[in-house]
Amino acid sequence: MAVNEELDSFLTRVDQVSSLIEALRSPDPEKVQRATERADLLVRGRLAEGAVDEHVECTVAAENRCSVNPRPALPPEAAQQEDFKRQLEADAAERAENRRQAKAESAVWKEKAIQAFREGKYEEALDEYTKALALLKDSCLLYTSRAQTYLKLNRASEALQDLDWALRLDETSLRAWIHKGKAHQQLGQLQLAVQSFEKAIKLHPDNADVVRVYIRDIERARERNAKPADEMHY
Asked: Rounded to whole angstroms, how far apart are CA atoms 203 and 200?
């Protein structure tokens, strides 16, 4: 009989602890507070009796570290801010992964475009650069490469559009300024071409000798165009 009573008493205490643990894990601050008080009373009462079971003591102590003396519950506004912060972090991680995948797929199309360009397949290269840009719209390099392809196809106006985008992304891009000069030259806008080349020299003085070659080409073209007029004057 004594054994049964002792077992019943033990099971009752286990039920009490289980109930307390469930309440301590509640999101309701008031319920947690009430459970905390009950847990303190339970432990004090059993200590006074000198009969706190090891199971009860350890279980309540374990929860005590987490919940009996919990950190103060966050006010609703702070809880909302925490939730919003977690959402932002999750969104940032997702966007980073999406960008990583997009860069990888874009790189595949870029390599195909480079190969097609080298083989003189400019229409094919143009299509593949466009697919690469669809996946990675903030690449200065892709815009300048597609612009170069447009120039090979004598589509200077479209090249200029790409070069404007490239320079928005990187206003110091040497390739973009050189190709912009070539595009203006192809359209017969020689003064604008010279201005673009001079901008490239200003930003990249170490490459001045290379860029001046393009300016000299324009100057020679001007001289050739001026000769017939001078001859007619005489």
From this structure: 5
Place of tokens 């009430």: 34
Question: 3-state DSSP call for residue 121?
Answer: coil
Q: What confidence tens digit (pLDDT) does each residue in 178-200 have?
A: 999 999 999 999 999 999 999 99
What does the pLDDT look like over 136-173, one tens digit per residue? 999 999 999 999 999 999 999 999 999 999 999 999 99
Rounded to whole angstroms, the Cα distance separating 69 from 64 reads: 6
What are the domain boundaries of the chain? 7-72, 98-137, 145-234
- Report angle CA 135, 140, 144 to the nearest 5 degrees: 100
| CA pair distance 106, 103, nearest whole angstrom | 5
The two most distant CA atoms of the chain are separated, in Å, by 137
| 145-234 CATH, one of 1.10.10.10, 2.40.33.20, 1.10.3290.10, 1.25.40.10 | 1.25.40.10
d(CA 146, CA 114): 10
Find all residues with CB under 8 Å of 223, minimum gap 6, and list them. Answer: none
Please tell me whether the overall predicted TM-score, pTM, comes out greater than 0.70 for this model. no
